[in-house]
Amino acid sequence: MEYEPVIGLEVHVQLSTKSKMFCSCGADYQSAEPNTRVCPICLALPGVLPVVNRVAVESAIKIGLALNCKIAEITKFDRKNYPYPDLMKGYQISQFDVPICYDGWMTVQPEGEPEIRIGITRVHMEEDVARLLHIESANGNSRHTLMDINRAGVPLMEVVSEPDIQSPAQAEAYILKLQSIIRYLGVGTASMEEGSFRVDANVSVRPRGSDELRERVEVKNMNRVRAVVRALEYEIDRQPGVWDSGGRVALETRGWDDVAGVTVVQRSKEEAHDYRYFPEPDIPPLEIGRAWVEEIRSSLPEFADERRARFKNEYGLGEYDASLLTASRATADYFEAVVVARELSDGDRAAFAKEAANWVNGELARLLNAPEGPSRIDQTRIKPEQLAALVALFQARTISNANARQVLEEMWSSGADPDTVVEERGLLKVSGADELLPVIREAIHNNPKAVDDFIGGKETAVRFLVGQVMKATRGRADAGVAAELLTQSLEEVKAAR
Length: 497
Known about the structure:
Elements: E1 3-14, H1 54-66, E2 70-71, E3 74-75, E4 78-81, E5 91-94, E6 101-108, E7 116-127, E8 131-136, E9 143-148, E10 155-161, H2 168-185, E11 197-207, E12 217-220, H3 225-244, E13 252-257, E14 262-268, E15 278-279, E16 286-287, H4 290-298, H5 304-315, H6 319-325, H7 329-340, H8 346-368, H9 384-395, H10 401-414, H11 418-425, H12 433-446, H13 448-455, H14 461-472, H15 479-496
Parallel strand pairs: 12-13
Antiparallel strand pairs: 1-10, 1-11, 2-6, 3-16, 4-5, 4-15, 6-7, 7-10, 8-9, 11-12, 13-14
Helix pairs in contact: 2-3, 5-6, 6-8, 7-8, 7-9, 8-9, 9-10, 12-14, 12-15, 13-14, 14-15
């Protein structure tokens, strides 16, 4: 029998707020010493009362609007009870039947595949749990666990998709687009490696063409996008064998072993009633005013998909350049600031934008990827208007490609203006005949063999002599003009013989 996968994703998005979800403790737990971002509320001491973080609620609404969700007019918090040691209170403050955002959707298009629409069931607010650090002795004979409570109470948003995802490639596209949305909104880092973006995958298989929903497996412990793809591929390969052998796929939670490349059973699947949800008595329901929602909607940025399409239409960029530039909001903002720094006509602007894209995606990206120095484009010393000036110098062929790279590196290290660097280093391109002809005559005089090769029909000799001219001018000569003048001079020598 032929099977098809049915996949739904649950993504926990950690918010980059200054304080925690229900108290004023700092949410910067990763940079803090263990157990230094705690208070009676996140320690769950008796008699404390939680207070809702307004910025976290606003961030939840932003995420919901970006995912085309409806925003609840009244929402509430619930207690989700389970006895894990990393849960200080013995319950988690979450949302159950009245989430803040619901009934949304997202479109994705994996490379080489048609676009599909994936439903968003809900986006709900909750708090993160503490961290357990499992430590094994050097000889392996003993093991103990330490608890860091700093993370307890950090705001989390859970984004739950409908089971509309039909392949690992679609799941990958969904995750990458959701990461992009979170980063464009500026509400979180969405880093799987850091743990601020955690993906659980629900996957089952059914006979192809059927609308049946069979028992699903929830897969956890995936800290990279590639790990999610591999885990889904493994389950899609494993589960048909279970059904074909006459068995049933167990409703269970499995962990992903990235080294072995397999999923392993962790526990039988807990259903909602196992958590004994009931309304959080210490937090009254929240009324979400429509005026506030519209105010938040008006503040949403232009997201990567829309910006990529506009860069292609407005600036004439290709798909490759536009995709690289819009991969992060900071890069897209920087590039656009470079372009608007020059007042140009539409035609000239398109040519300038293409050249600017080459420099942002090429040489500037190379410097950003270097081990030393800033890795974020908005932290560099090179201001957008400075890069625009350098691109204009290069586009006008005032400086050579090699010298333009030298100028960029000096701008990178010192923040100097390109005009200043060019003047101080004497890098203006030499293109006038009066300046080039003496150098050309000297190159012809010092390289008789190359002259003989040209006269003998080897036109490649011109390239060698151009190299000599470039060397003599320290790269300042205009190579095209030098080649033209060299050819004329060599033809004169040839005619004289």
